[in-house]
Amino acid sequence: MTRTSKGQFWMEVTQLNGVKDEDGTAGGKGVSGSLYVTVPLLQATGLYPGQQIAVTGVLYKPKAAANPGAFDFREYLKKEGVFAGLSGRQVNILNEEKKWGWWKFREQIVRSQVSFLGVPEGPLVSAMVLGSKAVDLPYDIRDSFVAVGLAHALAASGFQTSLILGMVLGLTKRAKRGTQFTVGCLALVAFLCLTGFQPAVLRAVVMGFAGLIALLLHKKVKQLGSLLVAASLLLIFNPLWIWDLGFQLSFLATLGLIVTVPAITKRLGWLPPAVASLIAVPLAATIWTLPLQLNVFGVLPSYSLVLNIASTPLISVISIGGFISAIASLILPGLGSAIAGVLHYPTDWLLKLVEFFNTLRGNSFAVGSITTAQMLVIYTLLMLAWLVRWWQRRWWVALGISLTLIFIPAWHTGNTLFRVTMLAAGGEPVVVIQDRGKVTLINSGDEGTGRFTILPFLQQQGVNQIDWAVASDFQGNGSKGWLELLPRLPIKVFYDSAANADNAITSGAIQKQLQKNQSTYQPLKIGQSVNIGSTLLQLVNGELPILQMRIQNKDWLFVGNLKPTDLRQLIKAKNLPHPQVLWCQPRSLKDLVPLLQPEVTITTSADIEPNILSELGQVKTQLLFTGRDGAIQWTPDGQFEAFIQAIENKSSVF
Questions:
Q1: β-strand partners of 419
Q2: Separation in Å, CA 428 to CA 425, 443, 444, 586
Q3: Of 63, 93, 180, 481, whose CB is crowded by the most CB atoms within 10 A?
Q4: Are residues 83 and 57 in the same domain?
Q5: What would the DSSP string read from start to end of 255-307?
Q6: Where are the transmembrane segments (predicted)?
Q7: SS3 of 434, please?
């Protein structure tokens, strides 16, 4: 299920029919390849892998990220070998006969565990056994685990494989080696088929097979060699997996366990072995995966190491119990449910532990996305500390250089950069002003804009606090994006011009959260001038609304979604200042641009009638569209730059 409660699946396509009109279709043709498909949830209910279906809907080309730090849907599909999507309306099943498949076992396991434990405990146990990609785990639970650095607990990989082999070899320890080998192989194959052929699972299973072969041949397995062989085989099978983040993290974490755990355990020799191992395993995995995480996300989970140590016993109990429950549910569903019921308290404790760490102040720290060059230098230092004796004795030098590479550039950029970024956020101007370490955010949009546009951008920029926030409701959505931002980012001063009777509930919730964060709340009145850093802001009109700003000797004007009558009255009254930068809705362009004649005009959609574009061409204004060009960025010593164009220019070099 998607976050918008639609069904989603991959579809291998063999036939394409273009709909011509209501009475008929254009001639069909044979095609090949895969599609990413979304359909209404009820249309997806009951579908299973291998089924033959026909989906009616609209084909579309996936869009690239429109904002810095945002999820790049086009790149994600491209790494999966998919280059188009289908927004489906209706699904017709072409073959009603239900074929045998591993999906039946997976469905039976999940149903058995959920029936006794309920939601979210049931799906969580199933996800820890089968992996979150094989289970419809609620997104709020998934997001909570990711935020505190426990995403690996929901990913089927090495931990589950080790448990399976440990259980199998323990139960068959009195049998012959050949029997142990056979039973172990069957268990690994069954686990692989149940979880799906994911890169991280395949890597773990291949290494598991290497261990079983070593057992059969009375040899000692070389873990590093088996890891390299597993990675090579997987990349020969599917070279695109080298770009898969799950594969990269799984490989690096396993490498860390192989080469770094012994060194850490040795230095923790003064502790009991069990305690030393409990600390060494998550610490080694963190050391080797953190540079990649900072390159991709730019966020450091502050309490990740502590939480991993505290949660390992619970995760182990739940995983072992989940496996036993899964096996029992395949034999007798009622027995599987009863066994799963024993896991209620450990699962509940784990959820409460994750929730507690999520509510701690500063539970994550944004350092900003490090460059690929920085990441490669840090990994080079890690390799030196692993392979070279001089560096092994001076590991603290490698640590110091790595921390310097991460924090000094971020600190320097944050304290010297002045940049204005207008994010692509639909019909509302969402502006971030980075003023030499001080950050101003103007408008928040709806919940989706707050979570998927503003937060990722601020994290990528290494922003951990908003100094000034201004709420003016351009879209009439009650500025609900603030409710997504406030629990995650403290705001020092909040200026509100959007509070009214229509959004009293949202406004009350915002003020309550501000009070909890000990922030300053100030209503923004019409005509009131406010100094926010080196920027001067004034609310010209609150109902429409209209905002005026002066940023580095450049005048900016944001004009809301005016009705034609209101617009004509404003123009007639000559109450609008003449800015150098204008933001307005597309339908207001033909009236406002000739009247105000700004140097730069920014609007949302590029879907404008040709005759209007021709008229605007006679006015000397640079016309930019956030819907087409993505985020628009400006620095005092530079020009206005479109994010999508800048990304394309950088990629064209290669």
A1: 434
A2: 6, 8, 8, 12
A3: 481
A4: yes
A5: HHHHHTHHHHHHHTTTS-HHHHHHHHHHHHHHHHHHHHHHHHT-EEETTHHHH
A6: 144-171, 200-217, 224-241, 247-264, 271-290, 296-315, 322-345, 365-388, 395-412
A7: strand
**Residue whose pair of structure tokens reads 């056979």 in the numeric block:** 182
The distance from CA 516 to its chain's CA centroid, rounded to whole angstroms, is 27
pTM of the complete model = 0.86
pLDDT tens digits, 86-139: 999 999 998 877 677 788 888 888 899 998 888 889 999 998 888 888 888 888
The arrangement of strands across the sheet holding 529-532 comes to: 529-532, 535-541, 546-551, 554-559, 581-583, 600-603, 622-625
Q: What angle do CA 422, 426, 432 make, to 5 degrees?
A: 20
Residue 542 falls inside a structural domain: yes
Residues 463 and 402 in one domain: no
- Decide: residue 494, CB within 10 A, 0-12 exposed, 13-18 middle, 19+ buried: buried
**Domain co-membership, 153 together with 226:** yes
Residues 40 and 64 in one domain: yes
Pairing of strands 438-442, 430-435: antiparallel
Domain assignment of residue 468, given as a range:
417-652
| Shared domain check, 410 and 426 | no
Q: At 275, which amino acid appears?
A: V
Neighbours of 273 (CB within 10 A): 11
> How many Å apart are CA 306 and CA 438, to the nearest integer?
31
- Answer whether 45's CB lies under 8 Å from 94's CB: no
In this structure, are residues 257 and 285 in contact, taking their beta carbons and an 8 Å threshold? yes
Residues in the chain: 654
Q: Are 343 and 116 a contacting pair, CB within 8 Å?
A: no
In a domain, 295, yes or no: no
Q: 99, 134, 161: which is the final residue of a domain?
A: 99
Q: What are phi and psi of 161, to 5 degrees?
A: -65, -40
Q: How many domains does the chain have?
A: 4
The single residue listed with the structure tokens 């199998």 is 168
Count the Cβ atoms, other than its own, within 10 Å of residue 34. 15
Domain end call among 304, 337, 366: 366
Give residue 562's Cα distance to chain centre.
Answer: 35
For the stretch 366-397, pLDDT in tens is 888 999 999 999 999 999 999 999 998 888 99
